[in-house]
């Protein structure tokens, strides 16, 4: 890698670290707004629960293995039932408080919240998202319109993966290579891909991060205007990623070769 490229990668790493470490994991972080308090009445799946008030809560910034929930033909992901049971072990019947970092409700009218157990002193204690990820029963799944301490969540995920906890013992959830023929088999699924960005190109109003020599067949990340705006807001330049080894996550689509839409920088882990 040429010296100028190394400098740009280091510069990007510094900016990315600043963006991801700009808050603490505590519930009183200035970026989080205190919300409802209640008891967990029931568990829907590994990332969804009901409070005793009837409020349905989606634990934002994480994704647990899915179960059908009455949907015909919907497959059960490996360890889906175990993830539901694990969330129940941690939270069922416990008093919790919701905290919001942006969008509060999704299109299904579920609360999108960071959820903390209330400790014996009446203060927010265990962070459910971090605990589920640390135990290996969820992956980090950030969204552009909600805030969370993603650096702490990524640390919990790396620890779980390094120790083969929960889902990380199953090949279904392994980190993928950007090799296009293999990755194309994962179309329409949420995956984590690790590789080197070989080039970055701006075509008309869109930006493409390429992982091979032939953009028509190789794995590519796609940033539209909204995605670029989110990068700019964080002070990050996608061009700086050229030559960097990264880990990225998202839904795999097929457009020429396999592709992911990258709509905000928190979906990237810089590995160099």
Keywords:
single chain, five-stranded mixed beta barrel, 23% helix, 16 strands, disordered N terminus, 272 residues, 6 helices, alpha+beta, five-stranded mixed beta sheet, 2 domains, OB fold (Dihydrolipoamide Acetyltransferase, E2P)
Overview of the molecule:
It is a single chain. This protein has 272 residues and is of the alpha+beta class. It folds into 2 domains: 3-19 and 175-270, OB fold (Dihydrolipoamide Acetyltransferase, E2P); 33-169, OB fold (Dihydrolipoamide Acetyltransferase, E2P) (Beta Barrel). Helix content is 23%, strand content 31%. The chain has 6 helices and 16 strands. It has a 5-stranded mixed barrel. Strands 10-11-12-15-14 form a 5-stranded mixed beta sheet. A 3-stranded antiparallel beta sheet has the order 9-13-16, with no helix packed on it. The longest helix is centred in the N-terminal third of the chain and has 18 residues, at 3-20. It is globular, with a radius of gyration of 19 Å. The model is unreliable at 1-15 and 17-25 (pLDDT under 50).
């Amino acid at each position: 890698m040429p010296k100028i490229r190394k400098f740009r990668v280091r510069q990007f790493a510094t900016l990315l670290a600043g963006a991801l470490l700009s808050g603490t994991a505590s519930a009183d972080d200035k970026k989080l707004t205190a919300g409802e308090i209640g008891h967990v009445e029931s568990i829907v799946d590994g990332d969804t629960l009901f409070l005793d008030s009837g409020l349905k809560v989606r634990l934002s910034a994480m994704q647990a293995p899915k179960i059908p929930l009455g949907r015909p033909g919907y497959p059960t992901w490996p360890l889906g039932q175990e993830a539901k049971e694990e969330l129940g072990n941690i939270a069922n019947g416990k008093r919790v408080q919701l905290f919001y970092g942006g969008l509060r409700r999704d299109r299904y009218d579920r609360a999108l919240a960071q959820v903390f157990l209330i400790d014996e002193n009446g203060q927010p204690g265990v962070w459910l998202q971090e605990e589920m990820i640390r135990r290996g029963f969820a992956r980090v799944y950030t969204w552009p319109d909600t805030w969370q301490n993603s650096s702490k969540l990524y640390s919990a995920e790396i620890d779980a993966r390094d120790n083969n906890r929960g889902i990380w013992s199953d090949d279904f959830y392994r980190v993928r290579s950007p090799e296009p023929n293999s990755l194309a088999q994962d179309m329409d699924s949420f995956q984590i891909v690790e590789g080197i960005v070989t080039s970055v190109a701006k075509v008309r109003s869109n930006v493409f991060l390429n992982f091979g020599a032939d953009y028509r067949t190789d794995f590519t990340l796609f940033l539209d205007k909204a995605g670029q705006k989110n990068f700019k807001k964080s002070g990050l330049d996608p061009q700086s990623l050229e030559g960097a080894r990264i880990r990225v996550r998202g839904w795999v689509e097929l457009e020429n070769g396999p592709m992911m839409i990258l709509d905000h920088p928190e979906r990237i882990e810089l590995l160099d």
